[in-house]
Amino acid sequence: MRVAIPKKTVYRLSVYLRCLERLAENGVQTASSHALAQAAGVKPTQLRKDLTSFGHFGTRGLGYNVVTLREKIAEVLGRTQLQPVVLVGVGHLGSALLAYKGFEKESFEIVAGFDVDVKRKRRKTYSQPILSLDKLENFVRPRKIRMGIITVPTSAAQDVANRLVAAGVNAILNFSPIVLRVPNNVVISNVNLAIELENLSYFRSLAEG
Amino acid sequence: MRVAIPKKTVYRLSVYLRCLERLAENGVQTASSHALAQAAGVKPTQLRKDLTSFGHFGTRGLGYNVVTLREKIAEVLGRTQLQPVVLVGVGHLGSALLAYKGFEKESFEIVAGFDVDVKRKRRKTYSQPILSLDKLENFVRPRKIRMGIITVPTSAAQDVANRLVAAGVNAILNFSPIVLRVPNNVVISNVNLAIELENLSYFRSLAEG
DNA sequence: CTGTGTGAAGGCTTTCACAGCC
DNA sequence: GGCTGTGAAAGCCTTCACACAG
Questions:
Q1: How crowded is residue B9: how many other Cβ atoms within 10 Å of its Cβ?
Q2: Which CATH superfamily is domain A83-195 in?
Protein backbone atom coordinates (compact mmCIF):
# COMPACT_ATOMS: atom_id res chain seq x y z
CA MET A 1 0.00 0.00 0.00
CA ARG A 2 1.17 3.50 -0.85
CA VAL A 3 2.14 6.29 1.49
CA ALA A 4 -0.87 8.16 2.83
CA ILE A 5 -1.51 11.37 0.93
CA PRO A 6 -3.89 13.90 2.52
CA LYS A 7 -7.36 13.89 0.99
CA LYS A 8 -7.25 17.48 -0.16
CA THR A 9 -3.80 17.03 -1.58
CA VAL A 10 -5.06 14.22 -3.80
CA TYR A 11 -7.70 16.51 -5.20
CA ARG A 12 -5.18 19.24 -5.94
CA LEU A 13 -2.82 16.76 -7.56
CA SER A 14 -5.52 16.22 -10.17
CA VAL A 15 -5.63 19.96 -10.71
CA TYR A 16 -1.86 20.23 -10.99
CA LEU A 17 -1.86 17.36 -13.46
CA ARG A 18 -4.15 19.24 -15.78
CA CYS A 19 -2.05 22.38 -15.51
CA LEU A 20 1.08 20.42 -16.29
CA GLU A 21 -0.60 18.87 -19.31
CA ARG A 22 -1.44 22.30 -20.65
CA LEU A 23 2.11 23.51 -20.04
CA ALA A 24 3.56 20.45 -21.74
CA GLU A 25 1.33 21.00 -24.76
CA ASN A 26 2.68 24.52 -24.98
CA GLY A 27 6.21 23.23 -24.99
CA VAL A 28 7.10 24.58 -21.55
CA GLN A 29 9.86 22.44 -20.05
CA THR A 30 10.31 23.86 -16.57
CA ALA A 31 7.92 25.51 -14.13
CA SER A 32 8.51 27.02 -10.70
CA SER A 33 6.17 26.30 -7.83
CA HIS A 34 5.10 29.92 -8.15
CA ALA A 35 4.12 29.61 -11.81
CA LEU A 36 2.41 26.28 -11.38
CA ALA A 37 0.57 27.38 -8.26
CA GLN A 38 -0.69 30.46 -10.06
CA ALA A 39 -2.06 28.29 -12.86
CA ALA A 40 -3.70 25.98 -10.36
CA GLY A 41 -5.14 28.75 -8.21
CA VAL A 42 -3.24 27.90 -5.01
CA LYS A 43 -0.31 29.30 -3.02
CA PRO A 44 3.25 28.25 -3.97
CA THR A 45 3.97 26.86 -0.49
CA GLN A 46 0.92 24.70 -0.64
CA LEU A 47 1.93 23.25 -3.95
CA ARG A 48 5.41 22.45 -2.65
CA LYS A 49 4.01 20.87 0.48
CA ASP A 50 1.60 18.82 -1.62
CA LEU A 51 4.39 17.51 -3.79
CA THR A 52 6.62 16.56 -0.89
CA SER A 53 3.94 14.23 0.40
CA PHE A 54 5.19 11.67 -2.13
CA GLY A 55 8.75 12.66 -3.02
CA HIS A 56 11.23 15.33 -4.10
CA PHE A 57 11.08 16.35 -7.71
CA GLY A 58 12.18 19.95 -7.89
CA THR A 59 15.57 21.45 -8.60
CA ARG A 60 16.45 24.27 -6.23
CA GLY A 61 17.00 27.53 -7.96
CA LEU A 62 15.21 26.25 -11.05
CA GLY A 63 11.84 24.62 -10.48
CA TYR A 64 10.14 21.45 -11.68
CA ASN A 65 10.54 19.57 -14.93
CA VAL A 66 7.06 19.67 -16.46
CA VAL A 67 7.13 16.29 -18.16
CA THR A 68 8.72 14.43 -15.26
CA LEU A 69 6.36 15.90 -12.70
CA ARG A 70 3.35 15.19 -14.87
CA GLU A 71 4.34 11.56 -15.20
CA LYS A 72 5.02 11.21 -11.51
CA ILE A 73 1.64 12.66 -10.53
CA ALA A 74 -0.13 10.50 -13.11
CA GLU A 75 1.57 7.48 -11.60
CA VAL A 76 0.63 8.42 -8.04
CA LEU A 77 -2.99 8.95 -9.07
CA GLY A 78 -3.03 5.63 -10.87
CA ARG A 79 -3.79 7.16 -14.24
CA THR A 80 -1.60 4.78 -16.12
CA GLN A 81 -4.38 2.78 -17.71
CA LEU A 82 -7.89 3.36 -19.07
CA GLN A 83 -10.59 2.61 -16.51
CA PRO A 84 -14.01 1.32 -17.53
CA VAL A 85 -17.05 2.92 -15.92
CA VAL A 86 -20.75 2.10 -16.19
CA LEU A 87 -23.51 4.67 -15.99
CA VAL A 88 -27.01 3.99 -14.66
CA GLY A 89 -29.87 6.30 -15.53
CA VAL A 90 -29.91 7.50 -19.14
CA GLY A 91 -32.07 10.58 -18.71
CA HIS A 92 -31.05 14.14 -19.48
CA LEU A 93 -27.91 14.20 -17.39
CA GLY A 94 -26.93 10.59 -18.05
CA SER A 95 -27.22 11.17 -21.79
CA ALA A 96 -25.00 14.22 -21.54
CA LEU A 97 -22.33 12.26 -19.69
CA LEU A 98 -22.49 9.37 -22.17
CA ALA A 99 -21.96 11.80 -25.02
CA TYR A 100 -19.17 13.70 -23.28
CA LYS A 101 -15.96 13.15 -25.20
CA GLY A 102 -13.63 14.43 -22.55
CA PHE A 103 -13.38 11.38 -20.31
CA GLU A 104 -11.22 9.24 -22.58
CA LYS A 105 -8.53 11.87 -22.64
CA GLU A 106 -8.78 11.65 -18.86
CA SER A 107 -8.28 7.87 -18.78
CA PHE A 108 -11.89 6.97 -18.04
CA GLU A 109 -14.32 5.39 -20.45
CA ILE A 110 -18.04 4.99 -19.93
CA VAL A 111 -18.48 1.58 -21.52
CA ALA A 112 -22.26 1.23 -21.22
CA GLY A 113 -25.42 2.97 -20.05
CA PHE A 114 -28.21 1.20 -18.17
CA ASP A 115 -31.82 2.20 -17.73
CA VAL A 116 -35.12 0.63 -16.71
CA ASP A 117 -36.55 1.80 -20.01
CA VAL A 118 -34.24 0.98 -22.88
CA LYS A 119 -36.66 2.15 -25.56
CA ARG A 120 -37.30 5.53 -24.03
CA LYS A 121 -37.18 8.33 -26.56
CA ARG A 122 -33.68 9.74 -26.81
CA ARG A 123 -32.19 12.25 -29.18
CA LYS A 124 -29.41 10.25 -30.67
CA THR A 125 -27.50 7.06 -30.82
CA TYR A 126 -24.53 6.70 -28.53
CA SER A 127 -21.21 5.06 -29.11
CA GLN A 128 -21.97 2.96 -26.02
CA PRO A 129 -24.74 0.36 -25.76
CA ILE A 130 -27.83 1.23 -23.70
CA LEU A 131 -28.92 -1.84 -21.79
CA SER A 132 -31.72 -2.85 -19.49
CA LEU A 133 -31.00 -2.50 -15.79
CA ASP A 134 -31.66 -6.24 -15.46
CA LYS A 135 -28.44 -6.90 -17.32
CA LEU A 136 -26.27 -4.81 -15.02
CA GLU A 137 -24.73 -7.55 -12.96
CA ASN A 138 -24.09 -9.85 -15.92
CA PHE A 139 -22.33 -7.02 -17.69
CA VAL A 140 -20.30 -5.62 -14.82
CA ARG A 141 -19.08 -8.70 -13.04
CA PRO A 142 -17.30 -10.61 -15.83
CA ARG A 143 -15.64 -7.39 -17.01
CA LYS A 144 -14.45 -6.65 -13.48
CA ILE A 145 -15.73 -3.09 -13.70
CA ARG A 146 -15.15 -1.21 -10.45
CA MET A 147 -16.64 2.21 -11.04
CA GLY A 148 -20.19 3.41 -11.57
CA ILE A 149 -22.08 6.65 -12.12
CA ILE A 150 -25.63 7.06 -10.79
CA THR A 151 -27.88 9.51 -12.62
CA VAL A 152 -31.28 8.03 -11.78
CA PRO A 153 -34.13 9.79 -9.92
CA THR A 154 -33.85 9.91 -6.13
CA SER A 155 -36.36 7.15 -5.52
CA ALA A 156 -34.28 4.61 -7.45
CA ALA A 157 -30.80 5.65 -6.32
CA GLN A 158 -30.36 3.39 -3.30
CA ASP A 159 -31.58 0.35 -5.20
CA VAL A 160 -29.18 1.08 -8.04
CA ALA A 161 -26.32 1.55 -5.58
CA ASN A 162 -27.11 -1.83 -4.03
CA ARG A 163 -27.05 -3.49 -7.44
CA LEU A 164 -23.78 -1.86 -8.41
CA VAL A 165 -22.15 -2.97 -5.17
CA ALA A 166 -23.56 -6.48 -5.57
CA ALA A 167 -22.01 -6.60 -9.03
CA GLY A 168 -18.58 -5.73 -7.67
CA VAL A 169 -18.40 -1.95 -8.09
CA ASN A 170 -16.53 -0.24 -5.25
CA ALA A 171 -16.53 3.39 -6.35
CA ILE A 172 -19.66 5.40 -7.14
CA LEU A 173 -20.12 8.89 -8.48
CA ASN A 174 -23.61 9.82 -7.30
CA PHE A 175 -25.65 12.63 -8.84
CA SER A 176 -28.86 11.89 -6.97
CA PRO A 177 -29.60 14.15 -4.00
CA ILE A 178 -29.62 11.44 -1.37
CA VAL A 179 -27.10 9.95 1.04
CA LEU A 180 -26.41 6.42 -0.17
CA ARG A 181 -25.76 3.69 2.36
CA VAL A 182 -23.04 1.32 1.21
CA PRO A 183 -20.49 -1.02 2.79
CA ASN A 184 -17.31 0.52 4.21
CA ASN A 185 -15.11 -0.68 1.40
CA VAL A 186 -17.12 1.25 -1.18
CA VAL A 187 -16.15 4.84 -1.94
CA ILE A 188 -18.79 7.40 -2.81
CA SER A 189 -18.52 10.89 -4.20
CA ASN A 190 -21.63 13.02 -4.33
CA VAL A 191 -22.23 15.73 -6.87
CA ASN A 192 -25.28 17.77 -6.04
CA LEU A 193 -25.83 20.68 -8.36
CA ALA A 194 -28.66 22.23 -6.39
CA ILE A 195 -26.48 22.31 -3.29
CA GLU A 196 -23.61 23.83 -5.24
CA LEU A 197 -25.92 26.59 -6.42
CA GLU A 198 -27.27 27.08 -2.92
CA ASN A 199 -23.76 27.45 -1.53
CA LEU A 200 -22.76 29.87 -4.24
CA SER A 201 -25.84 31.88 -3.54
CA TYR A 202 -25.06 32.06 0.17
CA PHE A 203 -21.47 33.22 -0.22
CA ARG A 204 -22.48 35.53 -3.03
CA SER A 205 -24.88 37.45 -0.86
CA LEU A 206 -22.40 37.47 2.03
CA ALA A 207 -19.86 39.19 -0.21
CA GLU A 208 -22.48 41.57 -1.51
CA GLY A 209 -23.47 42.55 2.01
CA MET B 1 -24.45 41.19 7.73
CA ARG B 2 -25.15 37.78 9.23
CA VAL B 3 -23.11 35.87 11.76
CA ALA B 4 -20.22 34.03 10.16
CA ILE B 5 -21.03 30.37 9.57
CA PRO B 6 -18.14 28.01 8.80
CA LYS B 7 -17.80 27.14 5.12
CA LYS B 8 -18.31 23.43 5.60
CA THR B 9 -21.24 23.98 7.89
CA VAL B 10 -23.01 25.93 5.17
CA TYR B 11 -22.64 22.99 2.82
CA ARG B 12 -24.03 20.57 5.37
CA LEU B 13 -26.94 22.88 6.13
CA SER B 14 -28.03 22.34 2.55
CA VAL B 15 -27.86 18.61 3.13
CA TYR B 16 -29.83 18.85 6.37
CA LEU B 17 -32.42 20.97 4.63
CA ARG B 18 -33.09 18.22 2.09
CA CYS B 19 -33.34 15.61 4.81
CA LEU B 20 -35.78 17.76 6.73
CA GLU B 21 -37.87 18.24 3.61
CA ARG B 22 -38.12 14.49 3.14
CA LEU B 23 -39.05 14.01 6.79
CA ALA B 24 -41.68 16.72 6.59
CA GLU B 25 -43.19 15.10 3.49
CA ASN B 26 -43.46 11.87 5.44
CA GLY B 27 -45.31 13.63 8.20
CA VAL B 28 -42.51 13.34 10.76
CA GLN B 29 -42.84 16.15 13.29
CA THR B 30 -39.80 15.75 15.49
CA ALA B 31 -36.31 14.43 14.86
CA SER B 32 -33.38 13.93 17.20
CA SER B 33 -29.88 14.98 16.21
CA HIS B 34 -29.09 11.30 16.03
CA ALA B 35 -31.87 10.52 13.54
CA LEU B 36 -31.22 13.57 11.42
CA ALA B 37 -27.46 13.03 11.39
CA GLN B 38 -27.97 9.46 10.29
CA ALA B 39 -30.11 10.61 7.38
CA ALA B 40 -27.53 13.23 6.44
CA GLY B 41 -24.57 10.90 6.78
CA VAL B 42 -22.79 12.81 9.58
CA LYS B 43 -22.22 12.41 13.32
CA PRO B 44 -24.84 13.68 15.77
CA THR B 45 -22.39 16.00 17.53
CA GLN B 46 -21.43 17.58 14.27
CA LEU B 47 -25.01 18.27 13.40
CA ARG B 48 -25.62 19.88 16.78
CA LYS B 49 -22.48 21.98 16.50
CA ASP B 50 -23.51 23.05 13.02
CA LEU B 51 -26.91 24.17 14.21
CA THR B 52 -25.59 26.14 17.16
CA SER B 53 -23.57 28.30 14.78
CA PHE B 54 -26.76 30.27 14.19
CA GLY B 55 -29.04 29.63 17.14
CA HIS B 56 -30.72 27.18 19.50
CA PHE B 57 -33.64 25.26 18.10
CA GLY B 58 -33.75 21.94 19.86
CA THR B 59 -35.71 20.81 22.87
CA ARG B 60 -33.62 18.84 25.34
CA GLY B 61 -34.87 15.35 25.87
CA LEU B 62 -36.94 15.56 22.69
CA GLY B 63 -35.11 16.76 19.60
CA TYR B 64 -35.86 19.24 16.83
CA ASN B 65 -39.14 20.29 15.33
CA VAL B 66 -38.84 19.30 11.69
CA VAL B 67 -40.88 22.12 10.20
CA THR B 68 -39.39 24.86 12.36
CA LEU B 69 -35.83 23.77 11.74
CA ARG B 70 -36.43 23.45 8.03
CA GLU B 71 -37.75 26.98 7.86
CA LYS B 72 -34.90 28.33 9.93
CA ILE B 73 -32.24 26.72 7.75
CA ALA B 74 -34.00 27.85 4.59
CA GLU B 75 -33.95 31.37 5.97
CA VAL B 76 -30.27 31.24 6.89
CA LEU B 77 -29.38 29.95 3.44
CA GLY B 78 -31.43 32.67 1.81
CA ARG B 79 -33.77 30.26 0.12
CA THR B 80 -36.79 32.40 0.63
CA GLN B 81 -37.16 33.52 -2.97
CA LEU B 82 -36.62 32.11 -6.45
CA GLN B 83 -33.24 33.04 -7.90
CA PRO B 84 -32.74 33.52 -11.63
CA VAL B 85 -29.65 31.93 -13.21
CA VAL B 86 -28.29 32.09 -16.76
CA LEU B 87 -26.45 29.26 -18.44
CA VAL B 88 -23.76 29.71 -21.09
CA GLY B 89 -22.83 26.85 -23.39
CA VAL B 90 -25.77 24.80 -24.65
CA GLY B 91 -23.92 21.62 -25.59
CA HIS B 92 -24.54 18.18 -24.14
CA LEU B 93 -24.16 19.12 -20.52
CA GLY B 94 -25.74 22.56 -20.83
CA SER B 95 -28.78 21.02 -22.53
CA ALA B 96 -29.14 18.51 -19.73
CA LEU B 97 -29.07 21.25 -17.11
CA LEU B 98 -31.60 23.37 -19.01
CA ALA B 99 -33.95 20.43 -19.16
CA TYR B 100 -33.44 19.46 -15.53
CA LYS B 101 -36.69 20.00 -13.66
CA GLY B 102 -35.26 19.77 -10.19
CA PHE B 103 -33.92 23.29 -9.79
CA GLU B 104 -37.22 25.07 -9.41
CA LYS B 105 -38.14 22.96 -6.46
CA GLU B 106 -34.77 24.08 -5.11
CA SER B 107 -35.52 27.78 -5.56
CA PHE B 108 -33.32 28.29 -8.61
CA GLU B 109 -34.50 28.85 -12.14
CA ILE B 110 -32.37 28.80 -15.26
CA VAL B 111 -34.09 31.60 -17.16
CA ALA B 112 -32.09 31.43 -20.42
CA GLY B 113 -29.34 29.59 -22.24
CA PHE B 114 -26.66 31.33 -24.31
CA ASP B 115 -24.44 29.92 -27.03
CA VAL B 116 -22.26 31.19 -29.85
CA ASP B 117 -24.28 29.01 -32.21
CA VAL B 118 -27.99 29.44 -31.60
CA LYS B 119 -29.00 27.29 -34.57
CA ARG B 120 -26.86 24.33 -33.64
CA LYS B 121 -28.70 21.06 -33.92
CA ARG B 122 -30.36 20.19 -30.62
CA ARG B 123 -32.72 17.43 -29.73
CA LYS B 124 -35.64 19.40 -28.46
CA THR B 125 -37.13 22.68 -27.61
CA TYR B 126 -36.57 24.04 -24.15
CA SER B 127 -38.87 25.95 -21.91
CA GLN B 128 -36.16 28.62 -21.78
CA PRO B 129 -35.03 30.77 -24.73
CA ILE B 130 -31.65 29.97 -26.31
CA LEU B 131 -29.95 33.22 -27.21
CA SER B 132 -26.80 34.34 -28.91
CA LEU B 133 -23.86 35.03 -26.64
CA ASP B 134 -23.83 38.60 -27.99
CA LYS B 135 -27.06 39.24 -26.15
CA LEU B 136 -25.75 38.13 -22.78
CA GLU B 137 -25.10 41.51 -21.20
CA ASN B 138 -28.32 43.06 -22.49
CA PHE B 139 -30.25 40.19 -21.01
CA VAL B 140 -28.49 39.88 -17.68
CA ARG B 141 -27.98 43.47 -16.62
CA PRO B 142 -31.53 44.84 -16.71
CA ARG B 143 -32.84 41.73 -14.99
CA LYS B 144 -30.21 42.08 -12.27
CA ILE B 145 -29.26 38.42 -12.59
CA ARG B 146 -26.41 37.54 -10.25
CA MET B 147 -25.71 33.88 -10.96
CA GLY B 148 -24.33 32.08 -13.98
CA ILE B 149 -23.44 28.54 -15.05
CA ILE B 150 -20.56 27.95 -17.47
CA THR B 151 -20.74 24.80 -19.62
CA VAL B 152 -18.64 25.91 -22.59
CA PRO B 153 -15.43 24.27 -23.85
CA THR B 154 -12.24 25.13 -21.96
CA SER B 155 -10.95 27.55 -24.57
CA ALA B 156 -13.99 29.81 -24.21
CA ALA B 157 -14.48 29.62 -20.45
CA GLN B 158 -12.39 32.58 -19.33
CA ASP B 159 -13.93 34.85 -21.94
CA VAL B 160 -17.42 33.81 -20.89
CA ALA B 161 -16.55 34.40 -17.24
CA ASN B 162 -15.34 37.90 -18.09
CA ARG B 163 -18.58 38.65 -19.90
CA LEU B 164 -20.70 37.35 -17.06
CA VAL B 165 -18.82 39.46 -14.54
CA ALA B 166 -19.04 42.51 -16.81
CA ALA B 167 -22.80 41.99 -16.95
CA GLY B 168 -23.08 42.04 -13.16
CA VAL B 169 -22.94 38.34 -12.27
CA ASN B 170 -21.09 37.68 -9.01
CA ALA B 171 -21.49 33.92 -8.58
CA ILE B 172 -20.42 31.35 -11.15
CA LEU B 173 -20.83 27.59 -11.25
CA ASN B 174 -18.04 26.48 -13.56
CA PHE B 175 -18.01 23.10 -15.29
CA SER B 176 -14.99 23.78 -17.48
CA PRO B 177 -11.73 22.24 -16.33
CA ILE B 178 -9.82 25.47 -15.89
CA VAL B 179 -9.13 27.88 -13.04
CA LEU B 180 -11.04 31.06 -13.82
CA ARG B 181 -9.56 34.41 -12.86
CA VAL B 182 -12.19 36.80 -11.57
CA PRO B 183 -12.37 39.82 -9.23
CA ASN B 184 -12.38 39.18 -5.48
CA ASN B 185 -16.04 39.96 -5.05
CA VAL B 186 -17.04 37.17 -7.43
CA VAL B 187 -17.62 33.69 -6.01
CA ILE B 188 -16.75 30.63 -8.06
CA SER B 189 -17.55 27.00 -7.55
CA ASN B 190 -15.89 24.44 -9.80
CA VAL B 191 -17.43 21.13 -10.74
CA ASN B 192 -14.97 18.91 -12.55
CA LEU B 193 -16.31 15.48 -13.29
CA ALA B 194 -13.04 14.05 -14.55
CA ILE B 195 -11.33 15.06 -11.32
CA GLU B 196 -14.15 13.56 -9.27
CA LEU B 197 -13.69 10.27 -11.10
CA GLU B 198 -9.94 10.45 -10.66
CA ASN B 199 -10.31 10.99 -6.93
CA LEU B 200 -12.78 8.16 -6.60
CA SER B 201 -10.43 5.92 -8.48
CA TYR B 202 -7.53 6.79 -6.19
CA PHE B 203 -9.38 6.14 -2.94
CA ARG B 204 -11.02 3.09 -4.43
CA SER B 205 -7.70 1.42 -5.12
CA LEU B 206 -6.35 2.49 -1.73
CA ALA B 207 -9.23 0.69 -0.05
CA GLU B 208 -8.79 -2.31 -2.29
CA GLY B 209 -5.10 -2.52 -1.43
C1' DC C 1 20.56 34.97 -5.89
C1' DT C 2 16.75 31.99 -7.12
C1' DG C 3 13.65 28.72 -5.79
C1' DT C 4 12.85 24.12 -3.28
C1' DG C 5 12.09 21.45 1.06
C1' DT C 6 10.45 21.53 5.79
C1' DG C 7 9.84 22.05 10.94
C1' DA C 8 7.02 25.03 13.50
C1' DA C 9 3.15 27.99 14.07
C1' DG C 10 -1.38 29.16 13.16
C1' DG C 11 -6.13 28.37 11.82
C1' DC C 12 -9.96 25.70 10.95
C1' DT C 13 -12.88 21.54 11.73
C1' DT C 14 -14.27 17.54 14.15
C1' DT C 15 -14.79 14.91 18.17
C1' DC C 16 -15.11 14.26 23.04
C1' DA C 17 -17.01 14.68 27.59
C1' DC C 18 -20.16 16.37 30.25
C1' DA C 19 -23.15 20.14 32.10
C1' DG C 20 -27.86 21.52 31.73
C1' DC C 21 -32.71 21.21 30.67
C1' DC C 22 -37.14 18.69 29.62
C1' DG D 1 -33.66 8.90 31.39
C1' DG D 2 -33.14 11.23 27.01
C1' DC D 3 -31.26 14.55 24.32
C1' DT D 4 -29.40 19.22 23.43
C1' DG D 5 -25.71 22.74 23.92
C1' DT D 6 -20.83 23.65 24.54
C1' DG D 7 -16.02 24.38 26.31
C1' DA D 8 -11.95 21.79 25.75
C1' DA D 9 -9.12 18.55 23.24
C1' DA D 10 -7.65 16.44 19.20
C1' DG D 11 -6.91 16.23 14.44
C1' DC D 12 -6.18 18.05 10.04
C1' DC D 13 -4.72 21.49 6.81
C1' DT D 14 -2.51 25.79 5.53
C1' DT D 15 0.86 29.26 6.02
C1' DC D 16 5.15 31.05 7.62
C1' DA D 17 10.08 31.49 8.07
C1' DC D 18 14.13 29.99 6.89
C1' DA D 19 17.70 26.37 5.97
C1' DC D 20 19.73 24.63 2.07
C1' DA D 21 20.91 23.36 -2.76
C1' DG D 22 22.04 24.73 -7.60
A1: 18
A2: NAD(P)-binding Rossmann-like Domain (3.40.50.720)
Domains of chain B by residue range: 7-76, 83-195
Query: Residue B96: which of A96, A146, A208 has the nearest Cβ?
Result: A96
Measuring CA to CA, which residue among B89, B95, B159 is closest to residue B124? Answer: B95
Residues B126-163 have pLDDT tens digits of 999 999 999 999 999 999 999 999 999 999 999 999 99
Q: Taking the model in full, what pTM does it have?
A: 0.95
Q: How far apart are CA A131 and CA A90, in angstroms?
A: 10
Chain B residues in contact with A93 by the CB 8 A cut-off are 96-97, 100
Q: Least CA distance to A19: which residue of chain B?
A: B178
Shortest CA to C1' contact from B42: nucleotide: C14
- Bases along strand C below 7 A from a protein CB: 1-7, 12-17, 20-22
Q: Are B76 and B10 in contact (CB under 8 A)?
A: no
**CATH of the domain spanning B7-76:** 1.10.10.10
Per-residue pLDDT tens over the stretch A93-125: 999 999 988 888 889 999 999 999 998 767 678
